[in-house]
Design brief:
The structure holds two protein chains of two kinds. Chain A is mainly alpha-helical. Chain A is built from 25 helices and three strands. In chain A, a hairpin with a 2-residue loop joins strand 2 and strand 3. By secondary structure, chain B is mainly alpha-helical. Chain B has one domain. Chain B is 72% helix and 3% strand. In chain B, strand 1 and strand 2 form a beta hairpin. The longest helix of chain B has 33 residues. Chain B starts with 10 loop residues before the first helix and ends in a 6-residue tail after the last helix. The chains are: A mainly alpha, B mainly alpha. Chains A and B meet through helix 24 and helix 25 of A and helix 7, helix 9, helix 10 and helix 12 of B.
Chain lengths: 640, 516
């Protein structure tokens, strides 16, 4: 591994990495400022910028691949952002194999979802605004992964938060959407505070916030500081990635249009936390405690998401909890240090394909079913929507880890490195991850069965139909990714080799459990999960109304393991009491004082105003009086 | 036989004043000899040529520090900076004088101001397309007087300059085409009170001469230093001189004329008075206090300190209950005069010398530009009776004319001293100088007064943006080229001096020299 934080200077094509951010940003600006005259062409402009961005990204990655050994990471300082005394913050780009992977994912999947949205949003009057926000998101997300320092990253970080907020609340007239957007924003803020304090700590202890300086100086820091930095970054990552304890916003975020769920809340933005930790690898390498915390968060979340996902009837919510759970896998892997970084990124990529595909499929189903999301009102859709059915099925097989599909390669590797981490913790992590794989198989099979198989339970006014080609083609492309991406990234173009300049060579490990054993065991557990779903769901009729007399476990799962209840009773209610108390103090105390003061000033003003009589004689008298006072005062000062 | 050899005169150093006064004299001849149909253009060009020429001359002679004409006039950094400021603000005001597009009768000035108000001849004149061109030479005389006022190093010259600047102003205050009675009332009030205040100045001058035997500021200082300034004659004289100057600068408690005159005078004249007269008066105050009475600082300092507080508080508090935009801006100018005195106080210490002076100079420039801009907006908002200055008429202006409301908002924020406007930079510079000088209680009061004043500035903003427009609301006139230039220049200056004030601050710092 190279010395952390040494980057080559960008030149040639690679010096234009900033254009990746610039193109969609200009697109967003044009769409937002262009006004209604762009309503007709807005979606085309939006798509064109992202497709162009993807082409540029491919060219840049090719250029990066052609760089000499040791110059695989190039940086380019654009301008000085905050040049104040000791605090020198430059805005610059860092294009290295890790950023490159994200850039391809964001622009590639982003382009597909943009194209899909042309069809999905065809009937929405605010389609131009939608594409403007989507472009804004892509620009911010690219800035996040391309920044060469924590401050640049933070700007992108807040930018994607803003875009996410705007898009969740895209249908802002719906109270649920507006509330969900607020919830997402507030919970993200909690995490953001962690990130920004981490940046403050970096500046206080290292005097710089650029990756180069921070990573180079990290080894000189006290152990406690590094651990604190790691935990603060983890808090930030939890917020953005919907990890326990900041997971609750992500399922609610499904109130946004489905392409948003696919791009932002499945494929890209929510993986920013994984990127943050992977990017900060040199810091986490120095702190065992921080790494352990990451793995524990990952394990808890992946189990939480998998359990809750089993109980929901809302197709998007199930997929959302599945996302929470899958990102938990990524956290688990990234927390395992050098052995896990590349694995986490691999799972992130395959997940990006199959989860985006699944969401687009869900969107296609909703599109054909009058925006219905309750799976109890689906059933038998497979015959009506063949392309959706097949592409969704491929994504499903990939997600549950059916052998030789993409998810199989990545998830197995996660479980494998979890076992390999050794000790009791290793067994707990590996066992938990394997158990969750079974649960994943259960809830996804349940979803498949309830949606596409069985007898129709549609509402009387539902006329399911296949979506137009502009929507199905992106789904087909993504399903191809769900099938082949894993194989390609492990065997044909190994991702771990590509990422070696960033994370160093993969360490040799003594396998605690032989990989083949892990594979077989996992496959058995997955088969059990599928079988259980078949046994409980597919054998009998699905009731249109959810049964009421259920076991406490299901009750708890339906209430998302009381996650919302916990937040409400521990944070929301006391928070409301506090705000009420503050409002009281504000009304009675502060407002009283302010209003009293204002009234006092107004009264004084009114009385003083009477001196302004309009009579020259009284003005002259006031001047004379003033002159007398001044003269007497002068004399008093002098002789008094 | 006394030696009567003529003093040597640096014509180059006096060029700025001479150009403006020369333009004014030629203007009188133009009035007499140029045919009527050419007169308007000739007078406008001449007056503009005079002020812009003066500005060019200031730039040309910048860097000189000398006394000329037998020590009667100073040509130093501060004098030149103030002369330049007056010339620039004067040029903008003259552009407002020259506006033809707004009033249906082509000019804001009445053709024959001497007719009895309300007589049938007078009523006819209100809408008749005759206009008055004497206002241009009169304004040039006033501007020339102001420039000399700020540069005079001799009490007698100062008094003459005071009269040169005041008399034309008294006249043109009464020349409004609309609301004639109010305009004439303001002219008479200004004249009576101005003469009254001039008398104080003159009496003070006499007492000082009686005490020191000289009217030269430098010599007065030497005499005062020699004798220890223990004479009641000296102190009383100083007090009366200060009263005269405070009156001209419109500082409370000598402010009573300001709202009435600002309201009644034609708005272009108000702009000239609110900007140029104030700048000139502060130039004279600075020179009088620091050149003439610098050694008696501890006599006048406590008093100026108190008067600064009174002016800030009175201006801010009385501004709250105003219902007329022009009166509101008048009280704003009273409050700003108080803020300027904070800068005057801060000149005191040798260690910070220059900073107080330079920040005061800078403040004068920013305040003048923003104020001219504010009054220029006032000329745009009109109804059947001319300008609609009552606040209620401004309700909902933003929906009628977003650009006008936005520009006015900019000026109001500038006057309130919000960051990113020139008003903030100016206030910041002055307050910092005062804190460095140890006058922090004064700064606390100044900040509180700023907060109070912000209320009435922002109230107008709220009114423009968040109130429903009145049914019979005013129309927003489309300004001709002159007012457009004024608005563009002042708005640009308000923003640029807020964002990147460095160059002008440096200039003010270099100019912070008082000789004598």
């Amino acid at each position: 591994m190279e010395i952390p934080g040494t980057y080559a200077e960008a030149s040639g094509l690679l010096a234009s990495a900033w254009l990746l951010v610039g193109i969609p940003l200009i697109g967003a600006a044009v769409l937002l400022l262009g006004g209604r005259r762009l309503d007709k062409a807005g979606h085309l402009i939006g798509c064109a910028t992202i497709v162009l961005d993807f082409v540029l990204a491919v060219a840049l990655v090719a250029a990066l691949a052609g760089q000499d050994e040791g110059e695989k990471a190039v940086t380019d300082t654009l301008f000085s952002f905050i040049p104040v005394g000791e605090l020198q913050v430059d805005i610059g780009m860092l294009f290295d194999p890790l950023s490159a992977v994200f850039v391809l994912l964001i622009t590639g999947v982003g382009a597909l979802i943009h194209i899909y949205s042309i069809g999905y949003m065809a009937h929405d009057r605010a389609r131009r605004r939608f594409f403007a926000y989507m472009n804004l998101f892509v620009a911010a997300m690219l800035l996040l992964v391309l920044g060469n320092g924590y401050v640049t990253l933070y700007i992108g970080w807040e930018g994607v938060g803003l875009a996410s907020y705007l898009l969740i609340a895209f249908w802002y007239r719906r109270p649920a959407a507006a509330t969900a957007a607020k919830k997402a924003f507030i919970m993200n803020r909690v995490g953001d505070v962690g990130l920004i304090i981490a940046i403050f700590v970096m500046f206080a202890t290292l005097g710089s916030t650029s990756f180069a300086d921070v990573f180079a100086g990290a080894s000189g820091l006290a152990a406690g500081t590094v651990t604190a930095l790691g935990l603060l970054l983890l808090l930030g990552a939890c917020g953005k990635s919907g990890q326990v304890p900041l997971q609750a916003w992500l399922p609610d975020a499904m109130e946004g249009p489905t392409p948003v769920s696919a791009l932002i809340h499945a494929a890209t933005m929510v993986t920013a936390g994984v990127y943050l930790i992977a990017r900060s690898a040199p810091l986490f390498d120095l702190s065992e405690t921080a790494r352990t915390a990451v793995t524990v968060v990952g394990l808890v979340t992946l189990l939480y998401g998998a359990i809750v996902g089993c109980a929901y009837d809302d197709i998007k919510k199930v997929l959302a909890y599945s996302t929470v759970s899958q990102i938990g896998y990524m956290f688990l892997a990234v927390g395992l240090g050098p052995a896990g970084y590349a694995v986490a990124i691999l799972h992130l990529l395959t997940h990006g394909f199959f989860k985006a595909g699944l969401f687009l499929g869900a969107g296609s189903v909703m599109h054909g079913m009058n925006d219905e999301v309750d799976m109890r009102k689906f059933g038998g859709l497979g015959s009506k929507m063949r392309i959706t059915y097949i592409t969704f099925a491929l994504g499903y097989l990939s997600l549950i880890g059916f052998p030789f599909f993409s998810g199989y390669f990545s998830k197995d590797l996660v479980i494998e490195v979890a076992f390999d981490s050794g000790g009791t913790l290793g067994w707990i992590l590996g066992g938990g991850a394997m158990l969750a794989a079974g649960l994943t198989a259960f809830y996804m099979t349940r979803l498949m069965v309830m949606t596409f198989l069985g007898r129709p339970r549609w509402d009387s006014d539902a006329h399911p139909h296949e979506s137009p080609a502009v929507m199905t083609v992106p789904m087909v492309v993504l399903s191809l990714g769900s099938v082949f991406a894993g194989f390609i990234l492990v065997n044909v173009l190994p991702l771990s080799d590509w990422l070696e300049p960033v994370f160093g060579p993969e360490p040799e490990v003594d396998h605690v459990v032989a990989p083949i054993v892990v594979s077989i065991l996992t496959t058995i557990v997955v088969a059990l999960g599928v079988g259980a779903a078949w046994f409980f769901v597919a054998r009998r009729e699905v009731p249109v109304r959810p049964p009421v007399n259920v076991s406490p476990v299901i009750k708890a799962a339906r209430a998302n393991l009381y996650g919302d209840a916990f937040n409400e009773s521990v944070f929301m209610r006391p928070g409301q009491w506090l705000t009420r108390a503050m409002v009281y103090v504000d009304n009675r105390g502060i407002d009283g004082a302010v209003n009293g003061l204002a009234a006092g000033l107004g009264g004084t003003s009114g009385r003083l105003r009477r001196t302004q009589t309009g009579f020259v004689r009284s003005y002259a008298l006031s001047i004379l009086g003033g002159a007398l006072v001044v003269t007497v005062a002068f004399l008093a000062v002098r002789f008094g | 036989m006394p030696d009567l050899s003529a003093p040597s005169i640096s014509y180059l150093g006096l060029a700025p004043v001479l150009i403006v006064l020369g333009a004014a004299c030629i203007g009188v001849l133009v009035e007499a000899f140029v045919p009527r149909h050419l007169r308007w253009n000739a007078q406008v060009s001449l007056a503009l040529l005079g002020t812009v020429g003066a500005l060019a001359a200031v730039i040309l002679v910048a860097g000189r520090n000398e006394l000329t004409a037998a020590r009667a006039v100073a040509v130093d950094g501060a004098a030149l900076f103030i002369e330049g400021t007056i010339a620039a603000l004067g040029a903008l005001s003259i552009l407002m004088f020259a506006e033809r597009a707004l009033d249906p009768a082509k000019s804001a000035f009445v053709a024959s101001a001497a007719l009895p108000v309300g007589s049938s001849a007078d009523r006819k004149l209100a809408t008749a397309p005759y206009s008055q061109t004497e206002v241009f030479p009169l304004a040039s005389f006033a501007i020339g007087g102001m420039m000399l006022f700020a540069a005079s190093n001799n009490l007698l010259v100062m008094f003459v300059a005071l009269e040169v600047l005041s008399l034309p102003l008294y006249l043109i205050c009464g020349m409004a085409r609309r609301r004639r009675l109010l305009s004439q009332e303001s002219a008479v009030k200004y004249f009576l009170l101005g003469s009254f205040a001039s008398a104080f100045f003159l009496y003070g001058l006499a007492l000082i001469y009686g005490y020191s035997g000289t009217v030269d500021l430098g010599e007065i200082r030497e005499v005062a230093a020699r004798s220890g300034a223990s004479d009641a004659l000296f102190v009383t004289g100083l007090a009366l001189l200060i009263v005269g100057l405070l009156f001209k600068a419109g500082i409370a408690p000598f402010h009573a004329w300001t709202p009435d005159v600002y309201q009644g005078a034609p708005t272009a004249v108000t702009a000239l008075m609110a900007s140029c007269t104030k700048v000139a008066a502060f130039g004279a105050i600075l020179r009088l206090l620091y050149v003439g009475f610098g050694t008696s600082e501890w006599t006048w300092r406590p008093l100026i300190y108190t008067i600064a507080i009174v002016s800030m508080v009175v201006g801010a508090i009385l501004g709250i209950t105003q219902t007329d935009v022009k009166r509101m801006l008048a009280y704003s100018s009273i409050a700003h005069a108080g803020f300027l005195l904070v800068g005057v106080i801060a000149l005191g210490d040798a260690a910070t010398a220059g900073r107080g002076l330079s920040s005061t100079l800078f403040y004068l420039l920013t305040y003048g530009l923003t104020t001219v801009g504010g009054f220029a907006v006032v000329t745009l908002v009109r109804d059947g009776d001319g300008e609609a200055t009552h606040l209620s008429k401004w309700a909902g202006l933003a929906s009628r004319s977003p650009l006008t409301a936005a520009v006015m908002t900019l000026f109001l924020l500038g006057l309130a001293g919000l960051p990113l406007t020139s008003g903030f930079t100016g206030k910041f510079a002055v307050f910092r100088a005062a804190i460095d000088d140890g006058a922090w209680p004064l700064v606390v009061v100044a900040l509180l007064a700023s907060a109070i004043a912000a209320f009435f500035y922002l109230r107008l903003v709220v009114l423009m943006y968040f109130s429903a427009p009145a049914e019979d609301g005013p129309t927003v006139g489309v300004p001709g080229l002159p007012t457009t230039i004024v608005l563009a220049v002042t708005a640009a200056a308000t923003v640029i001096l807020g964002l990147a004030p460095g160059a002008v601050l440096d200039l003010a710092e270099q100019a912070a020299v008082l000789v004598g």
